[in-house]
Amino acid sequence: MESAGPSAPPATRSRPADATNAGVLPPDVLFDVLLRLPAKELCRLRAVCRSWRALTSGPLFTGAHAAGHPLFLANVRGDRTHIRVVDLSGNVVKRIPIPDGHLLPTSFDLACAATVRNSCHVLDPATGGVHVLPKSPAAEHVGQEHLHQPYTSFAFGRIDDATGEHKVLRMFSRPYLFGLHQHHLFEVFTIYSGSGSGSSQPQWRARRSHDEFGSAIVVGEKEEWGGFLPGPISDIFHTDEYDDHLEDYRCLWIETTLANLRGSLALVHYRTYRHIMDVWLLKDSDDVLWVKEYTIQIEQIEATELCVKSLFMLNDGRLVIHFPKNGMLLIHDPTTNTSTQVEMRHLDAVAMYTGNLLSLQVGDICVVLACWGSFSVWYRRWC
């Protein structure tokens, strides 16, 4: 007599997969899946097989990954021996050993960190390589640069994508001598990221001196611009917050910062006690047309914060704002008018990284100087 137990399952079964195709995803699906992973995990997964390494190393994949996973370089308070590569979730992707250096607010595939000894380091985050530029001045400036009283500023920019040519501008801000103003000294150093030595010109080269300046930023890819360009100071002063007095000019100088927003010159004005940040963009350099593009209310910032140190724009239009006193990094979305703080340690300096850690790349600029008292801009041919 047969058992009254449960009936047996159907005899039909799925066909076992071919051992040669087991677990293999279509290339387009694999591309999309790997594209969602952070760079740190992708570097580990490259060891899985040659096809994965080839896929994640190709220019199509690395470009798409860089667009979807923006990275930043950071000086973190308490760590003077490393520059960290971080993502917008606050995760540390990579640490680059460096003896000393304060990051400049750049947006390139290479970065520049200035030292207190009239020199700077140019580093490649993809390879971890660091090129130390010489401290000694150009031959024309020997004995004039006041090495024992350094007030040195730097600017860094990319000249040619094909050759990997970058330039560093060094500016000696010389103090008054016997009550007389001295012209500041300007020097240029050329870096070729594709060369083995890091530079084909191992010395600084002198450039024409200018009057006083407060800061510098590199914008665009043109070398022909020259002359003097007024800033939007008259528009800023047409408010009830300022009187036309010298003290107000000095206050305004502290509150303003120059920035490069994806190739456009920007002047950032942070109104401290109102927690409002205005961003002015230069729309037309010929007609000197400045437009207030953004007005951002930021409630998270303490009243002791005096200025914005650096400002960047992501591919999706969001703004990344760094406040130096409290080391805070904010992401502002202009479409929703909301700001989010990135949870990480105190940041002393920040730079945006436009290269890609997945591709080991070998590898006309204008310099903008904010002039004391007039808030005007120099466009400097420096090649």
UniProtKB/TrEMBL annotation:
InterPro entries given in the database record: F-box-like_dom_sf (IPR036047), F-box_dom (IPR001810), SCF_F-box_component (IPR050796)
Region feature Disordered, mapped onto this chain: 1-20
Top-level division of the source organism's lineage: Eukaryota
Annotated PROSITE patterns: FBOX
Pfam family, one: F-box-like
Organism encoding this protein: Digitaria exilis
Residue ranges of domain F-box in the record: 19-55
Composition-biased stretches (Low complexity): 10-20
Protein name: F-box domain-containing protein
